[in-house]
């Protein structure tokens, strides 16, 4: 009979996610994961399999969370859709974004050599593009964005701005600067109120 686990699996997954976010897949050793999670190598292997299996688990959970966040942003009154786009781009004061986004980091590091990662990354980006397109359409119906504008292109612009802001945050650009850029991006697609 297998012995019951004496650790919180979700806490271990979150610790592994922080480690992978900080050092990337290739830059993370099993020793690093053991230190980060507080688990022995044997416990890590017993619970999650090898490093790749643990990473796949972490990455899938991260992408699933991103998908859920995108769906949640669609909820709410149409006349607040532009504000929801703005809030997605903005960062709170004191935010330290140096770890960056695991989706962006993983896509850059692994998608070119791993079809599973490439496909999951693309599916998550497609979800982000689609949710931003839908938010633009909501804002168009509410009269906050020109109804003649291309919602797919504007949604893509918002996603691309988000990715760029994450890269700037990782480089250490402060929240105040990032938020001025975020506001300028949203203001640039907003229809002036007469």
TrEMBL record:
<dbReference type="InterPro" id="IPR009057">
    <property type="entry name" value="Homeodomain-like_sf"/>
</dbReference>
<dbReference type="Pfam" id="PF00440">
    <property type="entry name" value="TetR_N"/>
</dbReference>
<dbReference type="InterPro" id="IPR036271">
    <property type="entry name" value="Tet_transcr_reg_TetR-rel_C_sf"/>
</dbReference>
<keyword id="KW-0238">DNA-binding</keyword>
<keyword id="KW-0805">Transcription regulation</keyword>
<feature type="DNA-binding region" description="H-T-H motif">
    <location>
        <begin position="29"/>
        <end position="48"/>
    </location>
</feature>
<dbReference type="InterPro" id="IPR011075">
    <property type="entry name" value="TetR_C"/>
</dbReference>
<dbReference type="InterPro" id="IPR001647">
    <property type="entry name" value="HTH_TetR"/>
</dbReference>
<keyword id="KW-0804">Transcription</keyword>
<dbReference type="Pfam" id="PF16925">
    <property type="entry name" value="TetR_C_13"/>
</dbReference>
<dbReference type="InterPro" id="IPR023772">
    <property type="entry name" value="DNA-bd_HTH_TetR-type_CS"/>
</dbReference>
<protein>
    <submittedName>
        <fullName>TetR/AcrR family transcriptional regulator</fullName>
    </submittedName>
</protein>
<feature type="domain" description="HTH tetR-type">
    <location>
        <begin position="6"/>
        <end position="66"/>
    </location>
</feature>
């Amino acid at each position: 009979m297998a012995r019951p686990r004496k650790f919180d699996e979700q806490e271990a997954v979150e610790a592994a996610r922080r480690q992978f976010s900080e050092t990337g897949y290739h830059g993370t050793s099993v020793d690093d994961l053991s230190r980060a999670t507080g688990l022995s190598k044997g416990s890590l292997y017993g619970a999650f399999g090898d490093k790749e299996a643990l990473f796949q688990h972490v990455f899938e959970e991260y992408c699933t969370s991103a998908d859920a966040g995108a769906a949640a942003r669609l909820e709410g009154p149409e006349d607040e859709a532009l504000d929801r786009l703005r809030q997605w781009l903005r960062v709170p004061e004191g935010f330290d974004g140096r770890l960056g986004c695991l989706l962006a980091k993983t896509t850059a590091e692994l998608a070119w050599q791993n079809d599973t990662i490439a496909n999951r990354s693309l599916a998550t980006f497609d979800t982000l593009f689609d949710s931003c397109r839908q938010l633009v359409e909501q804002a168009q119906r509410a009269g906050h964005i020109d109804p003649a504008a291309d919602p797919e292109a504007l949604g893509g612009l918002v996603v691309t701005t988000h990715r760029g802001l994450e890269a700037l945050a990782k480089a250490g650009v402060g929240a105040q600067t990032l938020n001025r850029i975020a506001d300028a991006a949203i203001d640039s697609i907003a229809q002036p109120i007469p």
